[in-house]
Structure formats: structure tokens, C-alpha cells
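Fill in residues.
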């Protein structure tokens, strides 16, 4: 009994929350430190750009009320994850808040700078007027260093209470030191004040914060582009259609979608066929034909007649909602580079304070005037602000994730994002991955005396509800050959699907149907005739242990597959096609997409796929869509779920593609490499700046104003370098189009 209790106590869970009131990356680190010290909490990670908190630990320790009480002691607020609209409203409020303070800082700081400039330039005719002008400079600086700078003081105090002083603590200390030194000099009758340094420090940091907020807005726009459901829908109630709020719709309700309207929720198509435009959701250029019983997703647009579907997921739980939530989870996790940056920023601030105190004491003992010693210490404090270090990784990651999402790739784990940039091999499943997820039945061969309409009815019932591409193809074939009600009169008592192999269905009249591969039916005791292997896929139907029909199916590679594989090979990646299908079918597809014979592995079980992936050059990537690919996806360093993959695969994969084909693999790989390169550049540049700036400030006198400008320039350089990801993403389609045009000209006669 004690062992069971110990096992339960060691069980780890995860919870995602939103933190309100964050002012900078130091605030995020302070919240992490506060929560990490709580009993039962093993780790806490705050993603500052999205204000998202991920907590790991024992489930009782992850309760919202308990965590909120700990966070509130620092002055922040904890709540559930924000919806897209709430996050946008929060960033809008932050932008207005920053803009108001920035305008005040500019309005009053302008006169402070003008007064200081007159003193520095010696424009005043007497020393007495210099002192008066210094007092004027201080008067205009007062609103800036009090009201405008109040958020810096508040955040500095909060982070210090959490024993994680960061940039705001240094800014507050620097601004107050500049004001204190200036007042002390004025009391001594000296006009050489540093009110302008405090004003510039606060003003330029506000500019940096505003730029950060605008960058975070850009990341949200990628999420907004997915889908915004309508507020009102048409629901069937009391034998009539009534308008109701989207939040009032429950699972099992029937909704009506008029031509041209967009589906608001996930569901299952009821009566008749539907023609859906998936381009807003997946980017598919051609509409998709859906049959009764097929799953339909929110975000699809109805191109045909009015359709009716049964809701399978309420508002907030649809696939698009899960994608948004997965984006928040992904951003809240920290990769290797982010953890390195946090550690660097964590010890930089205490180091700066120690160096400033040592500089003050050393210069004073060396005979330097006291006021100059204080100025030297002030420069050390200002120049060491770890703002650039804190922004180096999150902004680059946010820009990279936003670019990936805009191009149809959801990257759920920043650790996988960094691994993706270093992959050395890529393996692919065949059916539903390199080929269209919906193969076509080419012919049905009867193996019994049953009439064709009855065979079609049995096949329709056997395939109903299956997510396997071959079973869905059989059902579409039946739908075309028979009326829409084929098989509807047969009652299903029980249905069981064996992942990737077949499906067993028990009917109300006592008959048992088997639909699946030849090998699986043989294992179930069904006598199957040995047929010549033509390389085509096949599905066999058996009724009560006797073979009834054989369906032959054909597959074609998805558009752009050959070009994507060639591009990956050109960059040195080892490729493999691993399938459970027969050798001839695999070889036929390999020839179509330009893969070599030694790169093809046919007839592989899920366990065999995993062994092959483990033997490939590491890190490795695997793309698969079915239940038989789950083990392979878990074995590979990075698992990718293509469009239309099984729901279990989608949940377990690190990367999900929202567009048909595997072109998204190359997109994700290129973006991951580019993002990781920018992350490393940001981290190296910010680290070099801080170390060099600290060394120079300690070794030689640096005017505080120059220190302020250098510190802000380093932060803005990190923001600008991260913005290159977005600009490069916008230019890339144009560059590719030009390259294709040049290639076409080069091959023209």
C-alpha cells in the first residue's frame, strides 16, 4: 500500500496558465523562481512574449488557486490560458500603456535634454545660470523618473523579492542612482548633473518595450489566420432550424451550413454529399468531396448545397482550438538555447551590481573624486542590463513559429524545433504520406455467388467508420456504385479495427465481416487465393470466414513529392521509404518520386519500422499518418504528422502539417535551421556585448548617456535580427518563383 502511495506521489503532471502583469523577461524569470521553490513543483517555465506559464509537478501542486496565491505575492495574476482575442486585447492595452508613457517621457525629456545641452555647450553666461538650468533639467525629469518609470521600479522590486533581480532592477537602480548623484551635485553647487541619463534610460527602454510588443502582435496574427468561428449558428431544435450562440451548441447537435458559409465546429456529415473548400484550413487548391459519415472540420467552407452535420466537438475543443492550444504549450516549453540564455541572464544582473560596487570602491580608493566614482559605478549598472540576453531566444522562436504556422506547419515543441535544424536523415511512410490519403478503387472482383448490390452493401458496412485510407476508398467506391443508402439497412452490433491491418464487424443478423489485407485475413483463417503481385494495393472482404470480394486500388504520389525529396537529398540528408505494403507497390512509388532501390523498405511491421529508424543517422525524422506509425514517430528524433493523419498520430507528433503533401517537411527544416541560426546569433551577440561592455565600463570612464545608448542599441539589434526571419519568409516565395522562371527559361528551346 505504501508503494502504491509512493508511486502516485511521484506521478508527474503538467498544467498551462496565463500570467498577467509581466513587464519584461526578468518578471518571467521571477515567476519561474517563485513557483519552482514550491513543494511538489518540479519545473516552471514562462514564455514572456505570450505570457504563458507551463508548470510541471505532482497534480495536487498544480492547482490554479495554489499557484495563483504564490504568483500574487509577487504582484502578478494567474489565470487560464488566454484565447486569441483576449491575448490581442491584452497586447493592445499594453501598447496603449507604453505609448502613453513614451509620449510623456518624450514631452518632458525633451526639455530635460535641452537644458542639459545648454549646460554642456557652455551657452549660459554665468555659473549661477548653469546651476539654475540644472535645476530646470531636474524639474522636467521629475515626471519621467517618477510616474513614467514607475513600472520599472515595480518590476524591479518584484524580481528582487523573488531573488531573481534582472533588467528592471538594474534600470531602477541606475535611474535612481543618476537622480541621487545629480541631486547631491546640485547640493554642492555643481551643474554637472545626470538627469538626462535617467531620462534617456527610461525613454529608450520604453521604445524597446513598444517594439517588443509589436513583434508579439505579429506572432498572434499567425494564430488568428487559422479560423475565427461565427458567433451565431443554425441548430435543429424542435423540428425546426433556430439561430443560437456558438457556445450553446453541444456534442450531438445538428447544425446547418448554407452555401458559401464556413463550418464553425468539428463534426460528422449527416445526409448527402458535400463539397468543401479546405484552402482556409490546409491550403488545398482543389475542393474535397465528402460522403455521409465523413468527418468535417471547423474552418472548411461549403461550396455546394446546404449541408447538415452532427457536432462532435463543442466550441473550444475543435481541432483548430487544439492547434492553438498546442502552439501555447510549444511556446511555453524551453529549448536548450533558451535555458542557456536564462542561466546567463540570471547571473549577469548580480554580477553587474557587484562590479558596480567594486568599481565605486576601487576608483574612490584610487583617489578619483567621489562624484566621478559614482558616475563610473552608474555606467557599469546601465551598460550591464541583460535585456538583449532575455530577448535573444524568445523573439527568434516566436518569429520562427509564426512563419511556420503561416506556411502550414505547426511546431509543437521548441526542443524538436532545435533538433529539426540538425537532422541527418528523413524517413517516410507510403500510403497517406507520400501518396494521396484517399486512394481510388480500380476494380472489384467477386469471389462468391452473392449479387453485386449485396456485396457492395456488405463492403459499405465493413468500411463504415474506419479512418484507414484504403477502407475509405472502398466506401467511396461503394457510394459511387450504389445509392447513398447502400448498407444503411444493415445493423452493426460491434466493430473492431486492428491498426493498419484490417477491420472486424459483427452484424445484427449474426454475420461477421472481415475487411483488410490478404495476410491479416489469412491469419483469421480465411482461405485466400494466391494472386500475382502487380504492385497494386488490395483490400479483401470476407463474410463468415469465406472470401467474398477483392478490391484493387491504385495510388499516385502527391504533387511536389519528388521535388521535396530531391531537395532534402541535395542537402545531404539520408532518405528512406518505410512501408508495410508489398515490395512491388513500394518500388512503383519509389520510381515515381525518384527514390533509389536501396532506400526502400517494404513489408515492415511497426516494430521493424522503429528498428530501422533507430539505425538511421541521428537525429532522424519520420513522417507517418497511421496507427502503425506511432512507434516509429516515438522512435525518431522528430515525428511529423501529415495532413489527414490519425488523431492519435496528430497528438503524438512534434510537428503537424496543415497542407497536403510533404513539402511542409522541407519548409519546417529550412525554418528550423534559419531560426536556430538567428537564435545563436542573438545569444552570441548579446553575450559578447554584455561581457565587453562590462569590461570597458570597469576599466575606463564611460559617460552614462553613452552606456544607455549602447545598452538600448544591443536590445534593438536583437529585435531587428529576429525580424529578419519574418522578412526572409515573405521574400522566399518570390525568390522561388523567380528561380522557377529562370529554370524554365534555361530549358526553353
Amino acid at each position: 500500500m505504501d508503494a502504491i502511495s509512493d508511486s502516485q506521489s511521484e506521478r508527474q503532471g503538467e498544467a498551462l496558465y496565463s500570467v498577467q502583469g509581466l513587464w519584461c523577461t526578468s518578471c518571467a524569470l521571477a515567476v519561474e523562481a517563485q513557483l519552482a521553490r514550491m513543494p511538489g513543483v518540479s519545473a516552471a517555465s514562462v514564455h514572456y512574449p505570450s505570457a504563458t506559464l507551463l508548470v510541471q509537478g505532482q497534480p495536487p501542486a498544480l492547482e490554479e488557486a495554489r499557484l495563483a496565491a504564490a504568483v500574487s505575492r509577487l504582484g502578478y495574476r494567474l489565470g487560464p490560458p488566454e484565447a486569441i482575442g483576449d491575448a490581442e486585447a491584452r497586447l493592445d492595452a499594453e501598447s496603449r500603456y507604453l505609448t502613453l508613457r513614451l509620449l510623456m517621457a518624450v514631452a518632458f525629456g525633451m526639455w530635460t535634454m535641452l537644458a542639459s545641452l545648454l549646460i554642456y555647450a557652455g551657452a549660459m553666461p554665468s555659473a549661477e545660470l548653469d546651476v539654475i538650468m540644472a535645476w530646470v533639467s531636474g524639474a522636467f525629469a521629475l515626471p519621467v523618473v517618477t510616474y513614467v518609470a514607475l513600472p520599472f521600479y515595480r518590476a524591479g522590486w518584484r524580481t528582487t523579492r523573488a531573488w531573481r533581480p534582472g533588467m528592471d532592477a538594474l534600470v531602477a537602480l541606475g535611474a535612481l542612482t543618476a537622480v541621487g548623484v545629480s541631486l547631491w551635485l546640485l547640493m554642492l553647487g555643481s551643474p554637472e548633473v545626470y538627469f538626462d541619463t535617467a531620462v534617456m534610460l527610461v525613454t529608450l527602454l520604453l521604445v524597446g518595450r513598444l517594439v517588443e510588443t509589436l513583434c508579439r502582435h505579429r506572432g498572434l496574427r499567425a494564430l488568428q489566420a487559422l479560423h475565427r468561428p461565427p458567433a451565431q449558428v443554425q441548430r435543429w431544435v424542435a423540428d425546426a432550424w433556430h439561430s443560437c450562440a456558438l457556445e450553446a451548441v453541444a456534442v450531438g447537435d445538428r447544425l446547418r451550413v448554407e452555401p458559401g458559409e464556413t463550418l464553425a465546429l468539428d463534426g460528422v456529415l449527416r445526409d448527402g454529399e458535400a463539397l468543401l473548400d479546405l484552402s482556409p484550413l490546409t491550403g488545398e487548391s482543389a475542393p474535397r468531396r465528402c460522403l455521409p459519415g465523413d468527418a468535417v472540420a471547423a474552418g472548411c467552407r461549403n461550396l455546394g448545397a446546404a449541408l447538415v452535420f452532427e457536432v462532435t466537438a463543442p466550441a473550444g475543443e475543435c481541432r483548430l482550438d487544439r492547434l492553438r492550444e498546442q502552439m501555447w504549450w510549444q511556446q511555453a516549453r524551453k529549448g536548450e538555447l533558451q535555458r542557456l540564455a536564462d542561466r546567463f541572464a540570471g547571473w549577469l544582473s548580480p554580477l553587474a551590481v557587484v562590479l558596480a560596487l567594486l568599481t565605486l570602491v576601487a576608483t574612490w580608493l584610487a583617489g578619483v573624486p567621489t562624484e566621478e566614482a559614482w558616475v563610473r559605478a552608474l555606467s557599469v549598472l546601465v551598460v550591464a542590463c541583460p535585456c538583449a540576453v532575455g530577448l535573444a531566444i524568445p523573439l527568434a522562436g516566436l518569429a520562427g513559429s509564426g512563419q511556420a504556422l503561416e506556411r502550414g506547419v505547426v511546431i509543437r515543441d521548441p526542443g524538436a524545433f532545435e533538433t529539426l535544424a540538425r537532422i541527418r536523415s528523413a524517413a517516410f511512410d507510403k500510403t497517406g504520406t507520400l501518396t494521396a490519403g484517399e486512394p481510388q478503387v480500380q476494380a472489384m472482383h467477386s469471389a462468391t455467388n452473392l449479387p453485386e448490390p449485396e456485396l457492395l452493401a456488405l463492403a459499405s458496412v465493413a468500411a463504415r467508420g474506419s479512418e484507414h485510407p484504403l477502407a475509405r476508398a472502398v466506401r467511396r467506391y461503394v457510394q459511387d456504385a450504389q445509392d447513398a443508402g447502400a448498407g444503411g439497412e444493415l445493423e452493426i452490433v460491434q466493430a473492431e479495427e486492428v491498426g493498419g491491418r484490417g477491420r472486424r464487424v459483427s452484424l445484427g443478423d449474426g454475420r461477421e465481416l472481415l475487411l483488410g489485407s490478404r495476410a491479416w485475413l489469412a491469419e483469421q483463417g480465411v482461405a485466400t487465393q494466391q494472386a500475382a503481385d502487380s504492385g497494386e494495393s488490395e483490400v479483401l472482404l470476407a463474410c463468415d470466414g469465406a472470401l467474398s470480394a477483392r478490391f484493387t486500388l491504385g495510388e499516385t504520389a502527391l504533387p511536389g513529392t519528388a521535388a521535396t525529396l530531391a531537395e532534402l537529398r541535395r542537402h545531404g540528408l539520408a532518405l528512406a521509404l518505410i512501408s508495410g505494403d508489398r515490395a512491388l507497390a513500394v518500388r512503383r512509388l519509389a520510381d515515381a518520386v525518384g527514390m533509389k532501390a536501396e532506400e526502400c523498405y517494404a513489408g515492415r511491421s511497426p516494430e521493424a519500422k522503429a528498428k530501422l529508424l533507430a539505425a538511421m543517422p541521428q537525429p532522424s525524422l519520420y513522417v507517418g499518418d497511421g496507427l502503425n506509425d506511432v512507434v516509429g514517430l516515438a522512435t525518431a528524433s522528430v515525428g511529423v504528422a501529415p495532413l489527414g493523419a490519425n488523431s492519435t498520430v496528430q497528438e503524438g507528433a512534434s510537428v503537424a502539417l496543415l497542407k497536403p503533401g510533404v513539402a511542409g517537411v522541407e519548409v519546417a527544416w529550412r525554418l528550423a535551421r534559419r531560426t536556430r541560426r538567428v537564435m545563436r546569433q542573438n545569444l552570441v551577440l548579446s553575450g559578447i556585448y554584455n561581457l565587453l561592455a562590462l569590461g570597458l565600463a570597469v576599466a575606463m570612464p564611460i559617460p552614462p548617456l553613452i552606456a544607455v545608448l549602447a545598452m538600448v542599441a544591443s536590445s534593438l539589434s536583437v529585435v531587428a535580427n529576429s525580424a529578419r526571419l519574418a522578412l526572409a519568409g515573405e521574400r522566399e516565395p518570390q525568390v522561388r518563383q523567380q528561380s522557377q522562371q529562370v529554370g524554365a527559361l534555361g530549358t526553353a528551346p
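The longest strand covers residues 546-554.
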